[in-house]
From TrEMBL:
It comes from the Bacteria. Transmembrane segments: none annotated. CDD domains: CE4_HpPgdA_like. Residues 64-288 form the NodB homology domain. InterPro entries: Glyco_hydro/deAcase_b/a-brl, NODB_dom, PgdA-like. This is Polysaccharide deacetylase.
Amino acid sequence: MPTDDFGLPAESWRWTEQTWRGHVEAVRAGRRLVPDRWPGGARVAVALSFDSDHETIPLRDGETSPGRLAQGEYGARTGAPRILDLLGRHSVPATFFMPAVSALIHPEEARAYTRDGHELAVHGWIHERNMLLGRDDERELTARALDSLESLTGRRPVGIRTPSWDFSDSTLDIMLELGFAYDSSLMADDEPYEILAEGRPTGLVEIPVDWIRDDAPYFTMDRYGSVRPHSRPRDVLEIWRDEFDAAYRDGGVFQLTLHPHVIGHRSRLVALRELLDHITGHADVWFATHAQLADAARAVLNGPTTARPVPDAPEQTP
Ligand SMILES: [Zn+2]
């Protein structure tokens, strides 16, 4: 962060145009990557993801009490098996983003994801706060996470979601250096896009996320605070159903981020079950892992100009 002569954060209203423009252009959304039709002639792509954080959230913060760790353990012991069962019943694939420490605590779970035809992808080492790390530490932890998941499952992950969707000044460079095919941490669009670095195309596909399509903001709470943000699962279902219905109309992507320790509870899994019933009740739906979706998006980038603008969306800058 730029600072003034006293080491305080620089006052943004004093920035030159070059400075504020430089911040905005550092990491930016480029071309929107939506084909005429998704694979198999589908009109909508559905990309479900689960962030299997489990115990790493309290561990990351140095909270080692059995009580806090048990809340994460629930995700592995109770949530994940229920989710795998539900996905199996609907015969749909998903992507599981798993911090390496979580995968090392639960190696059988990590292997079960790939064995059942799902994708396992990188989600940091211990759900670290990359905004607090220097470049070397962030790179080393990301590389170690990549190697750990590969040695556990025999497959090298191709995708990454940063812990808590944070992006430091070094994150994009590290992703490119380590050869990731896609990222799923940014929010500049509803549809996949190419990430630009200082205006230059990087070839890295972004599969955007949003807090709207995440279970955690609706269901988690800070027990020492006064706010109790618990939502009724079927109210949340209605939001996600509206998101899917609009994506279906637009011919775009419906992407969802859930957490086994959050959505895996009996009363909340109802929302996912009814959402899957709703989606599978439609014709021409392509369920894809994030890696498969990134491949289809990249085909737009590399292929002839078959991309079309999504209805109600502004034209793309190149
Ligand atoms: Zn996470």
